[in-house]
Write a structure and sequence with these properties.
The protein contains 4 helices and no strands. It is mainly α and 95 residues long. The chain has a single domain (3-88), classed as Up-down Bundle (Chorismate Mutase Domain, subunit A). It is flat and about 55 Å long. It starts with a helix and ends in a 7-residue tail after the last helix.
């Protein structure tokens, strides 16, 4: 396989990653609605830790740099929280 072909495959994967990130962020609407129903704040440190622990375990199973993957997911979580704040118009939910 040529370098050009490898780069084309990487670009396709990158496009898929972007699509998946968009799908993940778009779920912020649903997450926000459920948090409102349950009277929870936008910032959910317990859930954040659950996600990060799961991701570190998955990264380790795939022989990836768990610390780097964790940092990526911290950014993704921050993006989702920011989107929820935008949708709610403020930093905390009102009961």
């Amino acid at each position: 396989m040529s370098l050009k072909e490898v780069r084309e495959q990487i670009q396709k994967i990158d496009d898929q990653i972007i699509e998946l990130i968009a799908q993940r962020i778009n779920l912020a609407d649903d997450v926000l609605e459920e948090k409102k129903k349950e009277g929870k704040d936008i910032d959910d440190e317990e859930q954040k830790e659950i996600v990060l622990n799961r991701i570190v375990e998955a990264a380790t199973e795939h022989n990836l740099d768990a610390g780097a993957v964790k940092r990526i997911y911290e950014i993704l979580i921050d993006m989702n929280v920011e989107r929820q704040r935008e949708l709610s118009g403020k930093g905390e939910l009102q009961p």
